[in-house]
């Protein structure tokens, strides 16, 4: 068919079809002055209460961060199009390193890893001011797995550290002692949630550092804001009985993944603490909401390595 024929045919399409095609690309609004938040509720578009305009109302402080959080640099409200900017603490990025160790090489791995990470701690100023948050060995879950979390001063710090490490013959030599002892390794870049900054290095006083539980959730794509909304409320219930260690969401590597880390003196205390949380109504609401957002969940019990700053 010629271009002229196509134009002639298009003119013959009845006008009644135009409204139908327009409707296919229209999202119905809730009301003229309301809009839907990630939690599925409505908020006024008044700047005083609109979270995206920095309002001080309930949704402004709960969902997108209080004025205090913004002033502290915990979130960056100017980048409204990115979920990570809305829910993340922008100052740092973290790297979650997972080593799956050959079972017969566990003791050799511990010795080699201690040399590497102690050198990193002692000379962090030479390597872009990188900090080791913690090192753990899994004892329930994927046994024989070691997790290390490094903290960088943003992506600039991450780049500086990796350039420095590649240029250090000593660090390269120490790493080469680790590699023959592992079956596999995974690196994931993660960010902290704005409402849940990581604990600074500390010694809990628990025997051998107690136990750490890392709960990992594979979220449905696009559900990060809903998760943050539910957990911001649920965390307040949990904090009545146990202080959180940290919470991260992935940015590079395995995407749409969230990790929560908790510390207890022992498994018995963990059991009682989790039971106590159910006495708070907001906690059961959080569980019901987050279950709908996750594709899979995993709980790993870990013990801190001897050199771990967190224990």
Automatic annotation (TrEMBL):
- Tell me which GO cellular component terms the UniProt record holds: mitochondrion
Which family does the record assign? Answer: Belongs to the NipSnap family.
Biological processes, Gene Ontology terms: mitophagy
**UniProt domain NIPSNAP: residue ranges:** 212-309
Pfam families the record matches: NIPSNAP
- Superkingdom is Eukaryota
Q: Give positions of region: Disordered.
A: 28-47
Question: What is the protein's name according to its record?
Answer: Nipsnap family protein
């Amino acid at each position: 068919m010629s271009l002229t024929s196509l134009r002639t045919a298009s003119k013959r399409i009845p006008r009644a079809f135009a409204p139908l095609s327009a409707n296919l690309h229209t999202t119905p609004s809730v009301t003229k002055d309301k809009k839907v938040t990630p939690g599925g509720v409505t908020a006024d578009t008044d700047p005083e209460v609109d979270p995206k305009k920095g309002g001080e109302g309930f949704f402004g402080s709960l969902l997108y961060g209080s004025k205090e959080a913004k002033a502290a640099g915990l979130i960056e409200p100017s980048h409204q199009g990115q979920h990570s900017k809305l829910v993340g603490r922008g100052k740092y990025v973290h790297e979650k390193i997972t080593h799956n160790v050959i079972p017969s090489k566990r003791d050799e791995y511990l010795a080699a890893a201690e040399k590497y990470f102690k050198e990193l701690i002692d000379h962090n100023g030479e390597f872009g001011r990188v900090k080791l948050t913690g090192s753990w060995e899994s004892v329930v879950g994927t046994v024989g797995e070691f997790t290390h979390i490094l903290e960088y001063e943003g992506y600039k710090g991450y780049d500086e550290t990796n350039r420095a490490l590649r240029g250090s013959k000593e660090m390269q030599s120490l790493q080469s002692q680790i590699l023959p002892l592992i079956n596999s390794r995974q690196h994931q870049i993660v960010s902290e949630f704005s409402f849940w900054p990581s604990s600074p290095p500390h010694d809990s006083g628990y025997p051998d550092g107690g136990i750490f539980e890392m709960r990992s959730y594979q979220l449905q794509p696009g559900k990060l804001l809903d998760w943050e909304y539910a957990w911001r409320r649920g965390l307040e219930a949990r904090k009545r009985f146990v202080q959180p260690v940290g919470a991260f969401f992935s940015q590079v590597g395995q995407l749409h993944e969230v990790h929560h880390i908790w510390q207890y003196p022992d498994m018995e205390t963990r059991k009682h603490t989790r039971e106590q949380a159910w006495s708070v109504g907001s906690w059961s609401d959080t569980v019901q909401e987050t279950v709908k957002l996750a594709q899979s969940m995993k709980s790993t019990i870990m013990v801190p390595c001897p050199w771990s700053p967190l224990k």
